[in-house]
Specification:
The complex is a heterodimer.
Chain A (H helix, E strand, L loop, with lengths): L6 H10 L7 H13 L2 H17 L1 E2 L6 E2 L5 H4 L4 E8 L2 H9 L5 E5 L18 H8 L5 E4 L5 H14 L5 E4 L15 H9 L2 E2 L1
Parallel strand pairs in A: 3-4, 3-5, 5-6
Antiparallel strand pairs in A: 1-2, 6-7
Helix pairs in contact in A: 1-2
Chain B lengths: L1 E10 L2 E7 L4 E5 L6 H13 L8 H4 L6 E9 L4 E9 L4 E5 L2 E3 L11 E4 L11 H15 L3 H21 L7 H41 L4 E6 L4 H5 L3 H22 L10 E6 L2 E2 H4 L2 H23 L4 E4 L8 H10 L6 E5 L9 E6 L2 E4 L1
Parallel strand pairs in B: 3-13, 3-14, 8-12, 12-13
Antiparallel strand pairs in B: 1-2, 1-4, 4-5, 5-6, 6-7, 9-10, 10-11, 14-15
Classes of the chains: A alpha/beta, B alpha/beta.
The complex binds adenosine-5'-triphosphate (ATP), magnesium ion and zinc ion (ZN).
The site of zinc ion has 8 residues of chain A, from helix 4.
Chain lengths: ~200, ~375
Amino acid sequence: MQYRYPESLANLIKYLATLPGIGPKTAQRLAFHLLNESEENALGLARAIPEARAKVRRCLVCGNLTDGRLCAICEDIDRDRSVICVVEQTRDIFAMERSRSYNGLYHILHGTISPLEGRGPEQLNIAALMNRLREGGVKEVVMATNSTVEGEATALYLARLIKPLEIRVTRIAHGIPVGGDLEYADEATLAQALCGRKEL
Amino acid sequence: MYLQNLRINNFRNYEDQLIEFDPELNLICGDNAQGKSNLLEAIAYLSLTSSFRGVKDNELLCWNKDYFFVCGELIKKIEKLDLRVGYQRQGRKIWQINKEAKNRLADIVGIFHTVIFSPEDLLLVKEGPQLRRKFLNRQMSQLYDGFCQTLIKYNKILKQKNTLLKESRARIINDEEIEPWNEQLSELGAIIIKKRLDVLTELKVFAAEKHRILSQEEQLDLCYESFLPESQMQQMTVEEIKDALFMVLKNKIIIEKKAAVSVLGPHRDDLSIFINQKSARNFASQGQQKSCAIALKLAELALAEQKKGEKPVLLLDDVMSELDSGRQECLLSLLKRDIQTFITDTKQRSDLSGHLFIVKGGKVLKA
Ligand SMILES: Nc1ncnc2c1ncn2[C@@H]1O[C@H](COP(=O)(O)OP(=O)(O)OP(=O)(O)O)[C@@H](O)[C@H]1O
Ligand SMILES: [Mg+2]
Ligand SMILES: [Zn+2]
């Protein structure tokens, strides 16, 4: 008969293997690691999951992740409130922040327009952005969606939508590799891209 | 350039075969259904990363096998390249040039330049525009760095737009949703059209010259059919073509929504062929169509040689059987000794001196 892991261990491996980038082999390694790990660490990890899931929400203004009502960036009084940088994903904010050359606010769309994946403008966090802009005070919107055809289409769509509000719309000049994700752009290219942004 | 050798493993009806080629003429002979075309297909696969017969990779797998690979050594003017490609059922394709992995089509296409003539090409004149666009796209991807990339990107945008247009059957689509795609299509479309016009200017001259020899004095003309007349577009800059294309697309939105598919752009353009001022598609005889198709291929060859300063490899599948003896002789006279050429034939010809390979049941024997 073929040897099998005890059911509880097999179960743990099964869930670990559902994580992105984790294959069956790595899942096994992680499971054994967790079994040998100190009580405190292993249970800490287990508790962190429901806690994060219960507490983390989207910022009511920009869509960024937060434990409260507003995110740390929206609450930061030292930020330039006349510029909003529009990005696809929450993680894109970290890429921009690492570049240390931007001090405005953000708006997260949570995706791009992509008919192939069944996503139109309606599915994106666009209505909230338009409300923010109509409230006044914003002088420039920087489109920092990726340079993929979907990211480009989203930037073009928004530029047309915002134009009647007479707010300046710019696109970060892509020093970022073509087809590349913002996430992978290193700080130097991103800083350059921000300086060289052009009108849309 | 020339292909020095080839190893084929589990590809079509070849299990494992290593062949050394002649730098000039290679004659591949054998009865029907023995593997002559499959051999040329394997060579072309190294060059184009897909089958020239338009089938999917898994159909190239030898029956009941789970992977195939093709490799060969290519001798170019200043370098020797080790080309390898492997395919695993339901898995990924692996490309290597000098043992270095390549992931993008654009990194591969154009390195091993081939010009192919196969029986399918006889339809080039008579069939719809798709084959003629493919003829232009295939050669231009090999000729110009970046062209392949531009086509791929254009097609990605087009696919998104067509999906959106299809949705218009189920819901109301605002023009604002279509315009971001049109804007990108115009930008890349203008680049594609401009480049095609440039190529055509030179291709026309070569094609007319080759056809004059093949047909004994008929006059061949080529014309690019797009949303504006060729003569007008030749005078325009890329920027002007882009703006014009965007305006025309804007005016077509209603029609496109109704049709639920994109109806205009370089993916719908055509290359018209005229023999003595008459449309070849409508009036050419069988023989004229054949000579015409061959002239286009020979023009492609001449253009590649001129543009790249390096001679491509010529693959001729079953051409002889399609031509009368007069035209066969003309064709042979046009072949140059210094271009590596592969010819398949069911008969062994006494009038051709090259290396003879006999193909039988998926095995190659050097005669
Ligand atoms: N995926 C495959 N696996 C195994 N055998 C295949 C596969 N695809 C095709 N074949 C076989 O390869 C043979 C056809 O080879 P090919 O097309 O090269 O013939 P050919 O020598 O060019 O003949 P012709 O003179 O008729 O053009 C057929 O016998 C076919 O059954
Ligand atoms: Mg054949
Ligand atoms: Zn916020």
